[in-house]
Amino acid sequence: MGSMFRSEEVALVQLFLPTAAAYTCVSQLGELGLVEFRDLNASVSAFQRRFVVDVRRCEELEKTFTFLQEEVRRAGLTLPLPEGGLPAPPPRDLLRIQEETDRLAQELRDVRGNQQALRAQWHQLQLHSAVLGQGHSPPSAATHTDGPSERTPLLQAPGGPHQDLRVNFVAGAVEPHKAAALERLLWRACRGFLIASFRETEQQLEDPVTGEPATWMTFLISYWGGQIGQKIRKITDCFHCHVFPFAEEAAARRAALQQLQQQSQELQEVLGETERFLSQVLGRVQRLLPPWQVQIRKVKAVYLALNQCSVSSTHKCLIAEAWCATCDLPALQQALQDSSSEAGVSAVVHCIPCRDMPPTLIRTNRFTASFQGIVDAYGVGRYQEVNPAPYTIITFPFLFAVMFGDVGHGLLMFLFALAMVLAENQPAVKSAQNEIWRTFFGGRYLLLLMGLFSVYTGFIYNECFSRATAIFPSGWSVAAMANQSGWSDAFLAQHQLLALDPNVTGVFLGPYPFGIDPVWSLAVNHLSFLNSFKMKMSVILGVTHMTFGVVLGVFNHVHFGQWHRLLLETLPELVFLLGLFGYLVFLVIYKWLCFTADSAATAPSILIHFINMFLFSRSPTNRPLFRGQEVVQSTLVVLALATVPVLLLGTPLFLRRKHQRRQFRRRRPLDEDKAGLLGQPEVSVASQNSDEEKAGCPGDQEEEENCRRSCGPW
């Protein structure tokens, strides 16, 4: 069978790569995807390998790429997909990419820092302008009244009256959620020796960090005395308030406000130029970053592969081991020759024997990839095992359709998947980043077949958007039942439910041409009938599916020459499966064929028969389906129970016996050699070792011969 039905034949090859052309050879092999390297330095730490410096350089570049990518996303831009296949650049271009990336990242940091500084400065100007233009005015001199008021202190301060003290001002802005706490703390800390005015800004100001519009609270605090002023400044600092100078004269405030507006306009012009330059830098990043990401990712993969190679004793070449499909060996040899031609020394490849299990290689395309992914999710098969993915192309969508069957819903699923299949080559569809869309797009062919099979089973169930359709005329005649049963008006008035008797002539005209008859949608027992039908159909399909899986195992046993598994595993599995559940399928089909509508009322129950089968009993009210049924059922149960210990212990005991025989055969020549040495003491140990080396291991010779046959002239 081909590679679709069985994993491809794989050989272990050894590569001798010249040091000057090792990078080019591995890069070319990576582009072709012909080999899978083995790690020959498994005992060496990752920090002690030969190309660890180059790998770290690539990782540093990836960190810089991440920074650039985040800056592009922060600006609301998207990175396009790289055009065409970009090969891994030579090592000298890696330094150029690193220098350009560092310069571009530093330039972007500087421009972004200048932009943030300018935005913060512009925000400060806006807040200062809002404080001056908010309408705060310093409190006027207190007017004296003839009589004392409630707020007039009883004792005068020792320094003189209050009107002789100098009034100072603290103006600024604070976040709205902090304003109430700030006002309360100021009043308590200063014991009321201040006048505070809080007002909300009329317009929202853009936050310099988040860029979102926000409302601020401006305040003006009038106080007397230096100590109170220190307390006020400390409190405003704790609340992270923006404090600005505030002139007492209105003319000075107007002049300061005009100056702030002029500075704000100039700063906006500078900020606009900075943002235009930033957009230019981001445009360069958007153009250069996607190809650089692909190239550096490939360079890193090349150096990681080179780290898995060992160095020859002369340090003139690298030795690598890799798995390669036997059909790709000529292409591998040609690729190595083309890659190492400039170095003057051609790379060498040859097959070597190996006792390790080769990896499983199954080639897929855009159609079979999703089905192969479903199979691999349950477990990847061993080397050269039968691949069940081709059969899953039919069984998985069909079993889904058995559950989902509906013409309308299946048609919608089919059209949705068909649209994705027809548009699969469009760049906009391929570059979509939505996770749900990528999941649907990856399984578009799976959805296509699921929808197609759902339409088919929907016609069988006769359901379209959960409604029955009458494509063909019904096989049941209500008129014949009414004419021959004597349904009168009084009978119809007393009986809300009417039964159609197929035994009456002309009532049942024949089976529906395809699927379930639409008259069942009007029946009261519609659900019980469909449940019984679907349950029996599911049992038949499930047993058939499991039997097919067991039969596929026969091909594996024959291919690997494991004939004992046919007797100890396959045969007991078939006896157990078919003896119990296969017999259940037989009962279902036998009852369908042997009982008609005339004898339906006296038909026995299959479920009761199946229960009695395991209990080794019989039910007097449930007559047998055929003569000798009890003997057949008892025999099948005994055979099924007898296969259980065979399935559990058969293969382990056989392998244990085989292992003991092998150990006995290996021990027997050693005992004979030991007896010969005791009888002939003049035989040297060196000659014995040379004889053993000449004899070798039969298993190794056999594996080497198989490898030579699979590799051919290579």
From TrEMBL:
<comment type="similarity">
    <text>Belongs to the V-ATPase 116 kDa subunit family.</text>
</comment>
<keyword id="KW-0472">Membrane</keyword>
<keyword id="KW-0812">Transmembrane</keyword>
<dbReference type="InterPro" id="IPR002490">
    <property type="entry name" value="V-ATPase_116kDa_su"/>
</dbReference>
<feature type="region of interest" description="Disordered">
    <location>
        <begin position="133"/>
        <end position="153"/>
    </location>
</feature>
<keyword id="KW-0813">Transport</keyword>
<feature type="transmembrane region" description="Helical">
    <location>
        <begin position="636"/>
        <end position="655"/>
    </location>
</feature>
<feature type="transmembrane region" description="Helical">
    <location>
        <begin position="398"/>
        <end position="423"/>
    </location>
</feature>
<feature type="transmembrane region" description="Helical">
    <location>
        <begin position="537"/>
        <end position="555"/>
    </location>
</feature>
<dbReference type="InterPro" id="IPR026028">
    <property type="entry name" value="V-type_ATPase_116kDa_su_euka"/>
</dbReference>
<feature type="coiled-coil region">
    <location>
        <begin position="250"/>
        <end position="277"/>
    </location>
</feature>
<keyword id="KW-0375">Hydrogen ion transport</keyword>
<keyword id="KW-1133">Transmembrane helix</keyword>
<protein>
    <recommendedName>
        <fullName>V-type proton ATPase subunit a</fullName>
    </recommendedName>
</protein>
<comment type="function">
    <text>Essential component of the vacuolar proton pump (V-ATPase), a multimeric enzyme that catalyzes the translocation of protons across the membranes. Required for assembly and activity of the V-ATPase.</text>
</comment>
<feature type="transmembrane region" description="Helical">
    <location>
        <begin position="575"/>
        <end position="593"/>
    </location>
</feature>
<feature type="transmembrane region" description="Helical">
    <location>
        <begin position="444"/>
        <end position="461"/>
    </location>
</feature>
<feature type="transmembrane region" description="Helical">
    <location>
        <begin position="512"/>
        <end position="530"/>
    </location>
</feature>
<feature type="region of interest" description="Disordered">
    <location>
        <begin position="671"/>
        <end position="714"/>
    </location>
</feature>
<keyword id="KW-0175">Coiled coil</keyword>
<feature type="transmembrane region" description="Helical">
    <location>
        <begin position="600"/>
        <end position="616"/>
    </location>
</feature>
<dbReference type="Pfam" id="PF01496">
    <property type="entry name" value="V_ATPase_I"/>
</dbReference>
<keyword id="KW-0406">Ion transport</keyword>
